[in-house]
Amino acid sequence: GAVVSQHPSRVICKSGTSVKIECRSLDFQATTMFWYRQFPKKSLMLMATSNEGSKATYEQGVEKDKFLINHASLTLSTLTVTSAHPEDSSFYICSARDTSLAQGQGGYTFGSGTRLTVV
Amino acid sequence: RKEVEQDPGPFNVPEGATVAFNCTYSNSASQSFFWYRQDCRKEPKLLMSVYSSGNEDGRFTAQLNRASQYISLLIRDSKLSDSATYLCVVNMRGAQKLVFGQGTRLTINP
Question: What gap in Å lies between CA B91 and CA A49, rounded to an integer?
């Protein structure tokens, strides 16, 4: 089945630094990838939709200058948390859709997530 | 009103019990429906898609009522390994993004 690889799985960084998270589709091409964040005991909240070769679409309330998204190829999207602060500490998860599957079949595969801790 | 609403639980039930989860969605343009399972500190994984006619996969049965905008998941003969958070997920016609409910936490007790 479709596999999405997300790295790193865990990162601790100092306040004010930037952190880059990578999301790769390993055996399929993904023109669109999605970035979510999840706080403890809460559901996934979509941050942005990453489009290959064009600008990402951000959800309301998500700062695009703080969460930089680059989707330069059909298999790689990156999320950079810039000038990180402790309140950015969260679980970040990417997802990609295997468009060879019909929408009703799901076809959305998730990366294993990145646990970011800003100290 | 949230787009997808679930009872957050938690549900604590004994092994072997039958468990039912309910979910409602607000947008009548919703087209595709799923149940995902998420283990603690892990990514969500697709449990099953939900079809209009209802569908079953082993001990799991999913149903959809479009008129009521209601989705359900039934787990029969629950196992310890069923302990997880169950997420109701909806996708609207023409849109690629998924909308997640807040999840229902389930613990199966021995």
Answer: 14
Residues A15, A64, A50, A119, Cα dihedral to 10°: 10
Q: Taking 70 as the threshold, does the pLDDT of residue A102 lie above it?
A: no
Residues contacting residue B110 through CB under 8 Å, at least 6 positions apart:
B14, B15, B80
**Which parts of chain B have pLDDT scores under 50?**
none
Cα B43 to Cα A95: distance, rounded to the nearest angstrom: 10
Other Cβ atoms less than 10 A from the Cβ of A22: the count is 17
d(CA B72, CA A32): 29
A103 pLDDT above the threshold of 80: no
Which alpha helices (DSSP H) does chain A contain, by range? none
For B10-30, the pLDDT digits (tens) are 999 999 999 999 999 998 888
Chain B contact present for A93, CB below 8 A: yes
Contact A108 B87 (CB under 8 A): no
| CB-CB neighbors (< 8 A) of B32 in chain A | 103-104, 106
Contact B106, B13 (CB under 8 A): yes
CB A97 within 8 A of CB A107: yes
